[in-house]
Each structure stands twice: as structure tokens, then as C-alpha cells.
Design brief:
Layout (H helix, E strand, L loop, with lengths): L2 H18 L2 E8 L4 E7 L5 H20 L18 H17 L13 H7 L10 H6 L10
Amino acid sequence: MDSIRMKALFLATVMRAKQKYRFELSNFTIMGNHFHFIIKPGKGECLSSIMQWILSVFAMAYNKINGISGHVWGERFFSEILGTLKKLLSVFAYIDQNPVKAGLVSLAWEWDYGGLAHHRKGIRGIVDELEAELLASFPLHALIREA
């Protein structure tokens, strides 16, 4: 399976998870060997359960297509509470810039497998609309309006 199809399968799995669990995904990027999410579980939801479901369902589908077994992304997911606005803004910017720093695109919004492109293009279902505070700090995440 090529990298583009792998990322599309992962996005489809996340979309299915959003139908099964209540959570907000404000930003993300999917790279070749890892991904980053800013995710906020809904009331009564457990982050570990959400991530376990996403990773296991994705791995089963990916492995079936490729005739292999085991984990796709390697280690268990790592999570960190973004307890301050400063930390949230720092991680948000890092996620946007990850594909640029990896040399995959010149401009962050060119990366189709991230929240920035989804916000700008109005792609719904995976990434949620940003709260005014985040949008004020990251205006590039505003939907591009066609004239």
C-alpha cells in the first residue's frame, strides 16, 4: 500500500471513530511513520479507549490489505495534557509545521494530511472548527472563501 492510500485509510478510520466516540480534533498531521493529534475527549469518553480503537481498527484494515500482521505505527501512543494556552499554541504550531520541517511541502497548508489543509478547504468530518481563541492565533486555519 502506498503512503497516500495509507493516510487515506487512516483518515477514514478517524472519521469512523468520530461516529463511535465523542471527541474534538482541533488539529492533526499524518506523516509517513507517525501522526500528531490535538484531541479533546467528550464528557464521559476516555482518550485511551478512543486511541486504542483508532489504532487497532486501522492496523487490522492496513494489515489485511498488505497481508501482514502487527502494529503499524510502532509504539503505543503518547499523550500529554496541554494545560496552558502557551503549550497549546506551541503544539498547534508544531503540528502545522511538521511536514514543512520534514521537507514534504514548502508551505504548511499544502500538506493534505493535516488540519490546516482541512480547515482551509472546508473538509468536514475529521477536524473540528476552531474556537475563536485558536483561530485568532492561527488565522491560516480559516476557511478559504471563493470570490
